[in-house]
Amino acid sequence: MRSRIIAFSLGIGALQMQPALPDWPPLVVLLAAAGLLWLVRQRPTAGRVQSVGCLALSLAGCALLGFAWAVLRAEQRLDDRLEAAWESRDVQIVGVVAALPHVFERGERFEFTVERVDTPGARLPRRIMLSWYRGSLDDEWRDGLKIRPAERWRFTVRLKRPHGNANPYGFDYEAWLFERGLRATGYVRPQAIAERLDDLVPAPAYLIERLRDHFRQSFYEVLGDSPYTGILVALAVGDQQSIPGDQWRLFRQTGVTHLMSISGLHVTMVAALFASLAGWIWRRSERAMLFLPAPKAAVAAGWLAALAYSLLAGFAVPTQRTLYMLSVVALALWSGRNFGVSRSLLLALLLVLLIDPWAVLSPGFWLSFTAVGVLFFVGTPQIGAARGWRAMLASWGSTQWAVTIGTLPLLLLLFQQFSLVSPLANAVAIPLVSLLVAPIALIFVAIPWPPLLHLDHWLVSGLMAFLEWLAVWPIWEQPAPPDLATLLAVVGVIWLLLPRGFPARWLGLCMLLPALSWPAARPAPDEAWVDVLDVGQGLAVVVRTARHTLLYDTGPLYSAESDAGQRIIVPYLRAHGVRAIDTLLVTHRDKDHSGGTMAIEETLPVARRLSSVPELQPERCFAGQEWLWDGVHFAVLHPAAGDYERDAAKTNNMSCVLRIAIAAGSILLTSDIEARDEQALLARARPQLKSDVLLVPHHGSGTSSTPDFVAAVSAREAVIPVGYLNRFQHPRADVVERYATSRVWRTDRDGAVRIRLGAEGPALSSHRSEYRRYWHGQ
Question: How many domains, in total, are found in the chain?
Answer without folding.
Answer: 4
